[in-house]
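Encode chain A's predicted structure.
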Amino acid sequence: MILEGGTIHTGDPALPRVAALPIDDRGRVSRGVEAWEGDASAVSTERIDLEGRTVVPGFVDAHLHFLSWALDRARVDVRDAPTAALALERVAERAAADRAAGADGGWLIGGGWTEAMLAEVTDPAAALDAAAGGRPAALWSRDRHALWLGSAALAAIGGEALRREDAAWAVPLPAPTRAERQRAVVEGQRAAHAAGLTGIHDFERTGGRRTWQELDGDDRVTLRVLSAIGAEYVDGIEAVEVVAGFGSEHVRIGMVKAFMDGTLGARTAHMLEAYDDGGRGLALLDADAVADLAMRAAGLGLPVALHAIGDAAVRAALDGLAASRASRDAWQELAGLHERPPRIEHAQLVHPDDLARFAELGVVASMQPVHAVEDRADAAAAWGARGAGAYAWEPLRAAGATLVLGTDAPISPLDPIATLAAAVGRPHVAGHALSVDDALRAMTWAPYAVSGLGARHGRLAPGRAADLVVLDADPYATAPEDLAGIGVVATMVGGRWVHGRPPW
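Encoded structure for chain A:
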């Protein structure tokens, strides 16, 4: 087929725009001469008129938790409730709806609350139990680093009503069945494609890799998935000899994920200076532990991806990666893996002295622009004046760092257009806004480039996969304040329409 009659941005610096985009029967971008000269014989006889619409390379979400997000789509969501009382009303409404449908026999699970909301509740367990109508209930915090349990749940499992970090993740909530996991992910893929996503970097802790592999074996995966493995499983990785990039065209092993600290919302992000209300957060790994992990992972052919939100956590991650660099480079040279650099996930607050170190050490900054919008008030309350320098994607880029952008769904909505709008439109923080070109690069080609796949994906250039999005407006010609209103018309992966299709 040949796409024509619109604006086509290739993402390729050598040829940023083309008049027509030929796609061959293998699902790859073909050479454009035959399209420009009016000869379609080398591609096909199908010509598709974009009717003035815009094409860009397919969006990639470089950090999310797909299974959790997919399952949450059918659970109680209290994100839009401004108070604890309204959040509990949402829970009560779901409990009543389940009773009416005869489906109130099990746990009621959801999430989206904040620490500020919870502070309004005198007896959290009793309040949640009352709202749930006596059913065992569990609500994850918005950052998914804390869990609120009702008294009926505590009767079943014991312990405290409020749990954070490892204590929260260790709670034995009912696991979804194989069929429930698969159904949620298949339906979630359709929603992801409708948002313009063609690829993801998945940081799901449990059940995600299994589900992707099950579906991939049945040829039911349409996203391009790079799946992380938790650092706690390094021994198992070594035992089965898994390497980065192992998998299929749609599901591959990506990186080793470890936590340096907690989160801003829970005040567990590790800080160089105390929070305005005291404390420095949690230091879950130090520089020596990072160096050891990075060298072990490099020996297995895998890069590390380090969750670090506070400036102390970011510095410790950089210090550890600096200490491991010589040994890590030796392993990467042996394995030919220099194209898969280490990453710091989130990097919400980076000390100004550490901005240039990302580029010096070859460390990728994997960031989520919507967090800057959602957490602005919380950052100001927790970090005071330091918060003005948070979410510094443009200063990092200007210092030479490679950026990749995502949403951290289900922490934030799975919406790449919102990511683009947040990255480009930051009038409240001078000097932090990206250009449209830099933001799109961090959402299309860069996530593949840091995964060793940049020569095959991420740009609409000859020989590369025809992964693309058709938009109803051109981001390059749209005012920053209007970017959030751009709509996704259609999405293609490997030459196949996975959302929308002509006729428009």
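The CA atoms of residues 99 and 105 lie 9 Å apart.
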